[in-house]
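To close the chapter, one final illustration. This time we ask the reader to focus less on the individual chains and more on the assembly as a whole: which components sit near each other, and how the overall shape emerges from the parts.
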Amino acid sequence: MRPVHRLATVAFAASMAFASMAASAHAILIDSSPKANGSVAAGHVPLALKYNSKIDQARSKLVLSGGPGQQDVTLRIAADAGKPSELDSEADLKPGSYVIHWQALALDGHITRGDLPFTVGAAAP
Amino acid sequence: MNLFVDIFGYLSIILHGLVIVAQSMTLGGLSFLLLLLLPLAPSLARGASLERRVLRLTCTAAAGLILAELATTALQVAVLMATVDLPLGNVLQASFAIAGGVKILCAALILAGLNPRTLASRGGRLALLLVGVAELAAATFTTHAYARLDDNALLLAVEGLHQLGAAIWIGAIPAFVLVLHHLDEAQGLRQVGARFSRMSMAGVACILLSGVTMCVFYIGDWSGFYGTAYGVMVGAKIVMFLALLLLGLGNFRVTERLRKGQVAPVLRMRRFAEVEIGIGFTIFFAAASLTSVPPAIDLTADRVSLHEIAERNAPSWPRLSSPDHDSLAISQLQAQLDRDAERHHQVAQAATVPGSGVLPPRNAEDIAWSEYNHHWAGIFVLLIGLLALLGRAGVGWARHWPLLFLVMAAFLLVRSDPEVWPLGQEGWWAAWRDVEVSQHRFFVLLIVLFGAFEWSVRTGRLRSARAALVFPLLVAVGGAMLLTHSHQISNVKDQLLIELTHTPLALSGVAAGWARWLELRLPGRGGRIAGVVWPICFMLTGVILLWYREA
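The assembled structure is written out below.
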């Protein structure tokens, strides 16, 4: 076999080698406030999502959906070099069920997304 | 664009695999030139011609690296721009984009510098080496090491060592095979074989040292090995690494015999090296996939215990009758949505939106449906292996066994994804956004292709020797695909227990493909042994499929 043909065979094998199907999350959510399926009191709520790896905070996204208005709101992420593995934000929340749809860009370039569902109860007296 | 994030994530892993292949071949070719061919060329009868050939191969690899890296970076940039609504200038400042840019620049410099004039000067060779090191350093910035919370510097160095080892050993094998093909003088074979043997050993040492260190930092303990997707994938890489070592040992013995001036099976060394390329590239794609999985050490909850593995794999009779399609969770949900919509005089919502990232519901009937599919696939594959052996033993009609692949492909196309057309409500084209559906369709395409090719070869419709190689190549590719076939199941433990069954299936597929390759390419006893091995691998695959359980 001539080199060009051999290379073509090798390139074909390589291009077909779909050995990489895992869509598993790269950055995983290891802690959060509110907790997943947890509950918080209505009012001004700090939101914090903590990951297992360093996150590019400026290029990640948090979208809050649910609540009385049922509208999607993109949350502003606070840039904090002291907490490289966190996406922090805040929101004024009324009682209801909410979900934070998060998309995190790990520093190594992997994009992961997930949901953080929680409920907001009546404000503390 | 949000509906395409999953499928783009999957594409980016494939592109990443191609980047690793191209990078390893570029750096491997460069090291082969600088450490082996240039010093030996004056004493080889056709040294200048060999140098030109390896130079061309390495240039092609460098061009491939530029294209693959450009594609993977562009894809990531496009996804980020669309989903986070950022301008191009901003996204290009992300670490991965900068690392990608540096890799492209380095590959372009290597491509420009790979010419006889640059290689003739000491300064030119040194510059090429430094650019290679810079490319390798940039590559480590798109690995787990850069995003870890601690020990970044150490882990970056370890990742670099790992990729260096892979390049100077596996990445240089194509150049080695190329040289072996054009080298017919005993003295030259002796010199090249001995020096490449030393290079390979250095590569193996780099891989071993860095691999063990990464196991400590990324896996941590034994339960991380068998209880997480990361650990299982590393286990599969280790098995393939051991297979490479065995083949390498065979080749080492040949080079030793050559060194001692004895008669040695050089053709076997070439064929083994071809198989090493195939298995080595499979490892590269497994490595690309590994970068998308969280390290085992981070997954403290949801690990699978040995007891759970034993319980799941307890023998039971295969499921040969299928549950009704209407009893599946997705069908029931759709029926409910249809009823609600009819009550409110509205258009019914779809129970699933492919690519939305929302995992479909699952009940006991779904599990039975999937087990039924796997068990019938097992019967097909077991029969294929058996008939291939009978065909080999001289039973004439058994040579039509590849037609069973076509029947199996039709079965899988219809049944693999019950929520999709023709059985379900999802449209054929929209379903491509679903990673699992795309994977199933690619499997079906592979099965049709290798079944059709092999049947045409065995019945004399295709007489080309190259056509015969399509079957082993695609079987090996199918095995490699299966290695990381993911299941969209919300329960992490169930997902892993399924992957634990798919890993031996994948390894068996890779072994079958390359054994058949050897049967075709290696005359004599070695080829005959390989000719028995691959049908047995098929039968083993069939038995594992029949053993498969999801609950």
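The two ends of chain B are 35 Å apart (CA to CA). Chain B touches chain A through 77 residues (CB under 8 Å). With these observations in hand, you are ready for the problems at the end of the chapter.
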